Amino acid sequence: MAHAVRALWPLGRALAWRLGDRPALGLHAQSRAGFTGAAGGSGPAATARKGGPRLLGAAALALGGALGLYHTARWHLRTQDLRAERSATQLSLSSHLQLTLYQYKTCPFCSKVRAFLDFHALPYQVVEVNPVRRAEIKFSSYRKVPIVMAQEGESLQQLNDSSVIISALKTYLVSGQPLADIITYYPPMKAVNDQGKEVTEFCNKYWLMLDEKEAQRMYGGKEARTEEMKWRQWADDWLVHLISPNVYRTPAEALASFDYIVKEGNFGTVEGAMAKYMGAAAMYFISKRLKRRHHLRDDVREDLYEAANKWVAAVGKDRPFMGGQKPNLADLAVYGVLRVMEGLEAFDDLMRHTHIQPWYLRVEKAIAEAPQ
């Protein structure tokens, strides 16, 4: 309480002057009228008449200040209580969920989901999927990762697509709606991509299903909500496509990348050896094709550097994160995508040749400090 009072003293002092001004000015005007109407005006009685209103004015000023400070401190503490209640509510909601994440550890889309879950302190189990056999997800007709299985009471829900998983779970934490209802807002639909292949897309996947008050509480305004959606989509549609061409840029980098993938992934001994050498060779040539498909420069590092600096410029110098004082869903998405390059030459180059490192380290720290 003492800390809150000290922090709010300048505001309380301003309120004191506003509340004290009018009584003090009124009493001072009366004292001048009494003084000019009195005979002799310099004796003890005149001094008493003059001093009395001043004492009353000072008392009114002090009383106004105390009331202003009391109500300001009370408002501040009530705001803290409401924030604590919302945190407790979010913790209570998260405790009702049992989450299992099916993933490839080195997949940028899976890394996005882990960044979200870790930042929001949502406990989850990880099942590392064998990328060759994929037996771990044989229960699912949706054959990509990440997949999250969410147990809420007696209800078991399957969430597909990284952005849908994040939007659905964030909606759940903010609104408290049943997860079974929330996932109906993100219906899958079949589409044919540029290569003539049928793919599954999800409607509304960057949109949180909140009412007006919830959205106002979370974002403060439409601009912040639109900005978050725009950059989440940018991470999926552009940034993620820069990863493979950069980590497989040269034969040496491709081999180092697959060495990392095999160590972190769920491979058998023979599968691992084949993946390391055959996969590295294959991905080196595939990365060249990806470079042409996405119209990247001959030196793909330049596209990576440009993307990183574009993101830093969008965050700006006046806020630590795009979300303001804490990371929002766009911050977590961009961080999750870039994190899969840690330990590789592309990541070291990115940190050296762009301005992204301070922001990256802030997000890393925010996730590490999330309450467990």
From TrEMBL:
Pfam entry (one): GST_N_3
Pathway: Lipid metabolism; prostaglandin biosynthesis
Main location: cytoplasm
Entry keyword Lipid metabolism: yes
Sorted UniProt keywords: Cytoplasm, Fatty acid biosynthesis, Fatty acid metabolism, Isomerase, Lipid biosynthesis, Lipid metabolism, Membrane, Prostaglandin biosynthesis, Prostaglandin metabolism, Transmembrane, Transmembrane helix
Membrane topology: Single-pass membrane protein
E.C. designation(s): 5.3.99.3
Top EC class for this record: isomerase
Cellular component GO terms held in the UniProt record: endomembrane system; mitochondrion
PANTHER family in the cross-refs: MICROSOMAL PROSTAGLANDIN E SYNTHASE-2 (PTHR12782), PROSTAGLANDIN E SYNTHASE 2 (PTHR12782:SF5)
Protein name (Swiss-Prot/TrEMBL): Prostaglandin E synthase 2
Organism from which the protein derives: Ovis ammon polii
